[in-house]
Input
Amino acid sequence: MTKKAEIYYFTLTDELPREDKLTWFKNTRFTNIEFDKINPDDKGNWLNLTDNDFDSLLPLVDKDVKAGKGEQAVFKMFSRGVATQRDEWVYDFDKKNLENKMRFFVTVYQATLKNLDFKNKHLIKFDRELDKYLQRNIEKFFEESHIIESIYRPFTKMAFYFDKHFNGMTYQWFDIYNAENYYIAFNAIGGSKEFHCLAANNIIDLHFTGDSQCLPLYVYDKDGNPHDNITDWALTQFQARYSESKLMSLDSTKEAIFHYVYAVLHNPAYREKYQQNLKREFPRIPFYDDFEQWVEWGRALIDLHLNYETVEKYPLKRLNTPPVAKPKTKLKADKINSVIQLDDNTSLSGIPLQAWQYKLGNRSALEWVLDQYKEKKPKDPTIAEKFNNYRFADYKEQVIELLMRVCTVSVETMKIIEAMKKIG
Output
């Protein structure tokens, strides 16, 4: 029987100067070092050890089984966001520009397939998968119906060409994407960002929240019929725990569970207590007292986050300085002075502190919007030469309105989170 390795640890004082550390290593025998023994937990972790009840909570997903087969978890199916491998081609703020790009893309692909213009293969983003489609003689045609609305980054929608051959890895999206469905997206394990999540009702990009994992409310069969993605097993667990709850007798109980989960994942006490677990494991869900209250919070959060484009605009103050003929785009946040500088001509002020506090990873929701609308030189040479028509000035008024609405969403989200803090 192989003996398990033992782990011992020693560290020098961080404040010790470099020269002193080198001298210590030079003069100290290995056998004289007083190591501390580390006892890994049951899962082999020896850094950031946790001593809590995480393993006893309800698993959201069973990642050890194939999609659709997990019954000992809250959700049957889960999926990563779409990993297109050619974002600059298949996404665009301008639907018409996206159409032009994809018509060109298909033309080059077809010409390459027919060996009519193989030398121009480099004009589009080929990869190993696309080469396989050539070998299998798969013909492609531009289809306008493939252009749909996608949520690319937090509170940033783009036109998207949804196609199983041109999108790299589509994972489970052909089984879960539907205009009536909505999803909880959270950052995948192993990342450097703090745990966060965001609901969406559009198809989600892989990097939406940082290598996103997505939990849909429904899954769809080949005929387009919806089926609950929350398991009967989960329903039984909730019914047993909340037998006195009024919501347990409603037909929409599974939707209530979905809202409950979304609220719990926003709870700052939950995120703090299980901080290390969430960095390396899929979330698990505790049972909190007052089920109805958590469902209400979850429903309110989902309503805010899905309908951010129609919430009331926060009354930010717009300041227009003497106009510059060719204003330089800035899109910078000055948190100290509560100002957003859009360009040389325009800024927004009066941004409340709570708006900056609503963060998704390393950025506030407002900063996500600012980042996505900046003018950036495309990396793809063909895009840069033929299809680089994005100018912030064309979207300026749209972005100002979006920032005002996202400001409202941020403030209202923080109000709910503050209410959560009061009961833990």
